[in-house]
């Protein structure tokens, strides 16, 4: 992502954040506790929404321009509890079963390999741990919006840092072996029509839950 894109990202997203994303983030992150990993944290839109029940928060962001803004927010907010890494979703620098929750928000659309990323998330989650997701996704098959997504996707992902308009993220989460226990499907208001379809919720890694401290 270019310096200018990263610099103006928060301003471009401001109306959509105010219309719906901030409320969606707040509702999801209120359920998060223990040791948490956020993948592709961007400029840090989620940082202030994590509760004191989160004992440790590791944030990854491979884009250096985004990461610079993220690090500045960490310094201002809570540097003792938060850490940042440049790792990618396909290669998470963490031990197996080391987190209670993994958070993705508007990330799965742009990872290089969605299946590999979900496999890594599953690896670092403890049994019974939760993947908390908020993603824009493909419109329903056969719809006019889906046809437009398919047409525009090649140029869109080139211009928008590999962001895919037509990824079937919900299906990929299920195919990776997660159990979706909470999901909402809603239009992302104040966003371009081709990126409005979204899903958000929580998917659990199978296995007996460990005690969260």
Over the alpha carbons, how many angstroms does the gyration radius reach?
16 Å
Give the spatial strand order of the biggest sheet.
Answer: 3-2-1-4-5-7-6
Strand content: 15-25%
Distance between the termini: 37 Å
Q: Pairing-aware structural class of the strands and helices?
A: alpha/beta
State the major sheet.
Answer: 7 strands, mixed
Number of helices: 5
Structure description:
This protein is an alpha/beta fold. Helices cover 35% and strands 25% of the residues. The protein has five helices and seven strands. The chain has helices at 3-29, 64-77, 114-124, 144-159, 169-175; strands at residues 34-39, 54-60, 82-85, 99-105, 125-136, 179-187, 197-204. The protein has a seven-stranded mixed sheet with strand order 3-2-1-4-5-7-6, sandwiched between helices. α3 (114-124) links the parallel β4 (99-105) and β5. It starts with a helix and ends in a 9-residue tail after the last strand. The mean pLDDT is 92.
Task: Considering the chains and any ligands shown, give keywords for the structure.
alpha/beta, 7 strands, 35% helix, globular
Topology diagram in text:
Elements: H1 3-29, E1 34-39, E2 54-60, H2 64-77, E3 82-85, E4 99-105, H3 114-124, E5 125-136, H4 144-159, H5 169-175, E6 179-187, E7 197-204
Parallel strand pairs: 1-2, 1-4, 2-3, 4-5
Antiparallel strand pairs: 5-7, 6-7
Give a nutshell description of this structure.
The chain has about 210 residues and is of the alpha/beta class. The protein contains 5 helices and 7 strands, in the order αββαββαβααββ. Helix 3 links the parallel strand 4 and strand 5.
